[in-house]
């Protein structure tokens, strides 16, 4: 099963559960007491997902590591390319 299929199935299951609580298909005390929370549950979950995504991005940026060896190798390749291009008639400022 592809990942997108898993996400779609999961979202469908959550949507059915949410709609059943929203339209009082289950006669429970919790759904009557927490009806306002149930109404805004998709918005609340979307905000939570956004905060989580932002936290992950900030963490990954903060812990991004530098590759000194790769940077030096790239600089050496750039110098070699400039020398080769100068031999072919290109001019660099």
UniProtKB/TrEMBL annotation:
Pathway membership: Protein modification; protein glycosylation
Listed InterPro entries: DPM3
Keyword NAD belongs to the record: no
Keyword annotations: Endoplasmic reticulum, Membrane, Transmembrane, Transmembrane helix
Keyword S-adenosyl-L-methionine: no
Subcellular compartments: Endoplasmic reticulum membrane
Pfam family for this entry, one: DPM3
Biological process according to GO: GPI anchor biosynthetic process
UniProt similarity note: Belongs to the DPM3 family.
Protein's recorded name: Dolichol-phosphate mannosyltransferase subunit 3
Species annotation: Aphis craccivora
